[in-house]
Structures are given as C-alpha cells and as structure tokens.
Amino acid sequence: MPKAPALNFSNPPVKSRKGEDKQQPPKGKANRPDRQGKKLVATHLPRAAYTDLRILAAKLATTQAALIEEALTDLMHKYKDHL
After folding, report:
1. Does some domain include residue 19?
2. Full-prediction pTM beyond 0.70?
3. Nearest alpha carbon to residue 71 among 45, 53, 47
4. pLDDT truncated to tens, each residue of the chain (83 aa)?
5. 70 is a domain residue
6. Which domain covers residue 60, as residue numbers?
7. Would you say residue 14 lies in a domain?
8. Residue 47 Rama label (left phi>0; alpha psi -120 to 50; beta)
9. Between the N and C ends of the chain, which has fewer C-beta atoms within 10 Å?
10. What is the pLDDT at residue 34?
11. Exposure of 4 in the CB half-sphere (CA atoms within 13 A)
C-alpha cells in the first residue's frame, strides 16, 4: 500500500469551480435581518426565573428576547433621570 502524502499547509487554496464564486458568510455568522443593528446581551438567571420566562413567552406567543427587551425598556424609563 502506498504511503499517504504528507500534509503541506503551504499549498495555495484550491480554486472554486465556475459558478461557485459567490462569497458566503462563515458558518454561524450568517447575516440575519432580525439581528441588524442589535447587540447580544448574555446573563445568567436563576433556574426559576428562566423557567418563568420561557413559560410566559409561550403563553403570550412571543419570544424570550421580546420579553427581555420590553423589561429593559421599562427599566430604562424607570431610571431615565440617571442616564
């Protein structure tokens, strides 16, 4: 059995076939219109708060993100004099 060629990472990348020049966004970084102009905010919640948020979103037929955005908007109105 012939020996497999050694890996060589200095080779130029293989050119794409005709018609495949369209540049696609990297996997996981797709341009989503619903995320345009938005930033990710992550936090850790107590399990009960997380569960309540999921249940409320389901009952109201909305998203958790929409509920969190509504809550943050209310919070910003409450503390508008401090901004």
Report:
1. no
2. no
3. 53
4. 677 666 666 666 666 666 555 566 566 667 888 888 999 999 999 999 999 999 999 999 999 999 999 999 999 999 999 98
5. yes
6. 44-82
7. no
8. alpha
9. N
10. 84
11. 3
DSSP, collapsed to helix, strand or coil, labels residue 54 as helix
Give the type of residue at 67.
L
* pLDDT given for residue 2 in this prediction: 72
Which among 47, 48, 49 has a CA at the least distance from the CA of 68? 49
Q: Give the pLDDT confidence score for residue 35 in this predicted structure.
A: 87
Is residue 72 domain-resident? yes
> Token pair for residue 22?
């369209």
Asked if 76 and 83 touch (Cβ cutoff 8 Å), the reply is yes
Listed in sequence order, the residues at least 6 apart from 31 whose beta carbon sits closer than 8 Å to its beta carbon are 25
Q: How many structural domains comprise the chain?
A: 1
Burial class (CB in 10 A: 0-12, 13-18, 19+), 67: middle
The DSSP line for 45-73 is --HHHHHHHHHHHHHTTS-HHHHHHHHHH
